[in-house]
Amino acid sequence: xxxxxxxxxxxxxxxxxxxxxxxxxxxxxxxxxxxxxxxxxxxxxxxxxxxxxxxxxxxxxxxxxxxxxxxxxxxxxxxxxxxxxxxxxxxxxxxxxxxxxxxxxxxxxxxxxxxxxxxxxxxxxxxxxxxxxxxxxxxxxxxxxxxxxxxxxxxxxxxxxxxxxxxxxxxxxxxxxxxxxxxxxxxxxxxxxxxxxxxxxxxxxxxxxxxxxxxxxxxxxxxxxxxxxxxxxxxxxxxxxxxxxxxxxxxxxxxxxxxxxxxxxxxxxxxxxxxxxxxxx
Length: 281
Ligand code: C2E
Ligand code: CA
Ligand code: CA
Ligand code: CA
Fold this sequence. Notes:
It contains eleven helices and ten strands. The protein is of the alpha/beta class. Strand 8, helix 10 and strand 9 form a beta-alpha-beta unit. Helix 1 crosses helix 2 and helix 3 packs parallel to helix 5. The protein is globular, with a radius of gyration of 20 Å. The N and C termini lie far apart (67 Å). The structure holds ligand C2E and calcium ion (3 copies). Ligand C2E binds next to strand 2, helix 2 and strand 6. This is GGDEF domain-containing protein. It comes from Shewanella aestuarii.
């Protein structure tokens, strides 16, 4: 038994080592990814489930390194740990704003949601300059009116847990400009329903983990019902994420959830595909 225990330990050590090497490798290559044009922003349409009409979209980051797509769930945490997320986040916001403006110039009004990681908010430069950031793009792009109303920031509950007054103030300032605030992955973290009352938010996104288990586990249905009912009472928008099947859609419709995002309708797609999809419809 002793020998086996030792093998296990060695095996475990090896796993950690392999993982650490992969993390280091990703970090090393990610540093250069922006400048080498390896990052791309994809767009996933968000639809009204009953009509199937595209009403908004979420911008989702893609990194192609050689012939491999490294999933954001793998490289975003590494970007957060290393601080690279600040530069990456700025790039993402700028690309998303450019796309919103491009569409506007084609007379297509398409609000775009941008994921903002909590660490990005707290990086010392950004905390004070998040507003300034949008002013800077405005100048850089040489446009007269910034389409604040077309921008939604998707934040997670972890942002709402610390320095509540500062966060509240920042979110209020952004909202005064017309930017909308959405709580992402709602219900998966250390949720507190009081967040919905105490912070200036416009929208709640039901995480795909709930949607994907609703057919097999009644409790997930109950949870979704509860989120929908409180959101309605507080006059918040609701988006269901990760809808893949007819049965999931039927439940969404039965709940009168107004917005849906999922493979049932569309997968995330490159910008040019997204623009031509919108131009054709
Ligand atoms: P998220 O914000 O919860 O984004 C939704 C994820 O669900 C996306 O994964 C999307 O492709 C996926 N999805 C949408 N519909 C379906 C469906 O019907 N079935 C399934 N199985 N998946 C669906 P993705 O693009 O891999 O992104 C993963 C996570 O990485 C995001 O989760 C977000 O937390 C993070 N992320 C992505 N882009 C950015 C970014 O630009 N900045 C930051 N900070 N985080 C990002
Ligand atoms: Ca999101
Ligand atoms: Ca997320
Ligand atoms: Ca999610």
